[in-house]
Amino acid sequence: MTKNKKLLAWVNEMAELCKPDKVHWCDGSKEEYDRMMDEMVASGMAIRLNEKKRPGSYLFRSHPSDVARVEDRTFIASATKEEAGPTNNWRDPKELKATLTGLFNGSMKGRTMYVLPFVMGPLNSPFSIIGVELTDSPYVAVNMRLMTRMGKDALDMLGEDGDFVPCLHSVGAPLKPGDKDSTWPCAPMEDKYIAHFPEERAIWSYGSGYGGNALLGKKCLALRIASAIARDEGWQAEHMLILGLTNSEGEKTYITAAFPSACGKTNLAMLVPTLPDYKVETLGDDIAWLRKGEDGRIYAVNPEAGFFGVAPGTSYQSNPNAMHTIERDTIFTNVALTDDGDVWWEGIGTPAPDHLIDWQGNDWTPDSGKNAAHPNARFTVSAVQCPAISPDWEKPEGVPVSAMLIGGRRPRVVPLVMESRDWAHGIFLGSVMGSEITAATISDKIGQVRRDPFAMLPFIGYNVGDYLKHWLEVGEGSDPSKLPRIYHVNWFLKSDEGKFLWPGFGDNVRVLDWIVRRLKGEVGAVETPIGNLPEEKDINLTGLKDVDLSALLKVDKALWAEEAKAIAAYYEGMDRLPEELKEQLKGLQERLK
Ligand code: SAT
Ligand code: MN
Q1: Ligand 2 centroid to 258 CA: how many Å?
Q2: Ligand 1: which residue has its CA nearest to atom 3?
Q3: Catalytic residue among 18, 220, 263, 386, which?
Q4: Which of 78, 135, 167, 418 could in theory staple to 531 by disulfide, Cβ–Cβ 3.0 to 4.6 A?
Q5: Is 304 within 8 Å of 286 (Cβ atoms)?
Q6: Nearest alpha carbon, ligand 1 atom 2
Q7: Atom of ligand 1 nearest to the CA of 261
Q8: What is the rounded distance in angstroms from the CA atom of residue 164 to the CA atom of residue 145?
């Protein structure tokens, strides 16, 4: 156990509030994990998969109302509404605390409170942040063991006087004596609260057991709370993958990339290149903490210890490294179960079997007319199981970043790749990046762009205008030659007939190849009003057929004039937008004339 007074006092206080039957301090051992899994299998919460097909792996099915992060129920309770800014749901911290204290009162009755000490970042690194999650969900406990450095090591690092971010979590479903528990307890939507107190550096999450709502080290701590800490301390917490690209000379280039959800971050992080001269190593697939090193370069650390990836669409074709990673010791949530005790999902690369049990536990056949796996079904797995994991991934100081990629799904307008003119222009591009809204999202807005600054819209723990100012400040006072160059990429351009123009996946290395040679000064670029584009001859298409580079690298001035108008309208809604970015927009409009 611990002698940390702050921790002991807080656990006592919260146990008095939540009134669990028992308190269990997790040591993070494999034995403890196995024991908890056995208990969950026995209670019907978990299904043990076929030991021969998927050793050490389990399937969980969530309640159909609890299948993803709930942005509507996510709150930033900073001292003032202005602090939270126009993109966050703000609540007065005192009022929200009072509401939540009411909800948490007795919320763990009939359940065990698990104490999960965890570290975001490598163990014993001065840059890492310690958190302690109190939860009544054993599912959360086993997931946190894979996603963070959880247990005794974290307590040791905390020591007697160390500080931690308190993370209180309850599924919000207390049990009365004799009640039969549900296999996925949770609270109704209107009672769910994913609450952040950035001044106090605390997280209170109530009512959901799923993903980022409940595994509080991830989006809540490593992005929302960390982004606020980072602003104060002069570093950055970003929604970025980290990869290392090695060329045939053995030179390594570290690249980060910020894309919104469902744009292939995990696929790019684990890319298997189609150009034989290159090799990709994975350092992270979701979050990067960025810090200037003593040499003036920016270094990236992945604070997580595992992957919480979307299963549907993942196959030996689209992401072989991910498929190898999840061959064993994996937690699956909301995928389909095969008759021989293995998993299946849409896009797994094998035809649907004649019979499955779907993600809600019902019989499924190919004629059922619905998905067998939920579209947001997930795998949770330890990062060390990834065959492409980089030997550098746990370096406390991180790896030096040479290029940062940004982008979204833009079927029109935005070319395959463009290099920003300089740091501030890169921040401009990052501030307006996003994805075009498709039929799958909101029908009356089809064709509009959902802007998502640096893919951080749901994750900035403070005012978005101040966040963009912080990005600009990183550049000020830096030697521009040491800063990473920022590239806007777009794998999702479509022809007028609606066909993808770019093959994507492993062929994205052809764009990385251009970027690396550009960084080394081996290739030039065409200056256009929107940024620097490759010359067609410099994109290596060896082995590819029928790729229309002229369409992929086209700059249509009329469409860009429309884009500039849309950006101006978007900027209108941002109260604390830095002047510098308005100047950047003017510059774009001038160059388009
Ligand atoms: O559920 S998570 O927030 O962890 C995953 C995601 O939505 O990107
Ligand atoms: Mn993410």
Answers
A1: 9
A2: 212
A3: 263
A4: 418
A5: yes
A6: 212
A7: 8
A8: 17
* Whether 490 contacts 407, CB under 8 Å: yes
- The predicted model scores a pTM of 0.97
Buried b (16+ CB within 10 A) or exposed e, 147-156: bbbbbebbbe
218 Cβ closer than 6 Å to some ligand 1 atom:
yes
DSSP annotation string for 436-477: E--TTS-GGGTT-EEE-GGG-TTT-SS-HHHHHHHHHHHHTT
Q: Report residue 271 CA to chain centroid gap.
A: 17
Nearest residue (CA) to ligand 1, atom 8 = 261
pLDDT tens string, the chain, 593 residues long: the values are 899 999 999 999 999 999 999 999 999 999 999 999 999 999 999 999 999 999 999 999 999 999 999 999 999 999 999 999 999 999 999 999 999 999 999 999 999 999 999 999 999 899 999 999 999 999 999 999 999 999 999 999 999 999 999 999 999 999 999 999 999 999 999 999 999 999 999 999 999 999 999 999 999 999 999 999 999 999 999 999 999 999 999 999 999 999 998 899 999 999 999 999 999 999 999 999 999 999 999 999 999 999 999 999 999 999 999 999 999 999 999 999 999 999 999 999 999 999 999 999 999 999 999 999 999 999 999 999 999 999 999 999 999 999 999 999 999 999 999 999 999 999 999 999 999 987 655 556 667 899 999 999 999 999 999 999 999 999 998 999 999 999 999 999 999 999 999 999 999 999 999 999 999 999 999 999 999 999 999 999 999 999 999 999 999 999 999 999 999 999 998 989 999 999 999 999 999 99
Nearest ligand, CA of residue 68?
A: 1
Residue 543 falls in which region: left (phi positive, over 0), alpha (psi -120 to 50) or beta: left
Instruction: Report which secondary-structure segment, H or E, holds 318.
Output: none
Contacts of 325 (CB under 8 A, 6+ apart): 270, 307, 381, 385, 386, 387
Under a CB-based contact definition with an 8 Å cutoff, are residues 267 and 276 in contact? Answer: no
CB of 519 within 8 A of CB of 419? no
Tokens of 484: 């990473």
CA of 306 to the centre of ligand 1 (A): 13
> Which of ligand 1's atoms lies nearest the C-alpha of 69?
1
CB 384 within 8 A of CB 328: no
Cβ of 224 below 6 Å from ligand 1: no
425 within ligand 1 shell (Cβ under 6 A)? no
Cα 265 to ligand 2 centre (Å): 8
DSSP collapsed to 3 states, 43-101: HCCEEECCCCCCCCCEEECCCCCCCCCCHHHEEECCCCHHHHCCCCEECCHHHHHHHHH
Which amino acid makes up residue 477? G
